[in-house]
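Lab manual, section 2.4: Encoding a predicted structure.

Procedure: take the sequence of the chain (82 residues), apply the prediction step described in section 2.3, and record the output as structure tokens. A sample record is shown.
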Amino acid sequence: MNKTLDLTKSVYDLCTSDPDVIRIMQSLGFDQMANPIILNTAGRVMTIPKGAKARGKDLNHIIGTFEREGYHVMGKERSHHE
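Recorded output:
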């Protein structure tokens, strides 16, 4: 069964519903996702596309990484316009 990653949801929601998201985000250079304080504050308002833009990361690379990990990525179309 494929896992789903909705790019319109907050990082907090994604990480609390699926702890594997934290591991994948860390592998992509988002080490702060493992910090519960940051996850519970900034993570509640931050989405993956917004975080990618803020950190200068390629959103397509992030999406591709999640897809290779077996995720169906939703919200790709809307996220490119944020």
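Check your result against the sample. The mean pLDDT is 91.
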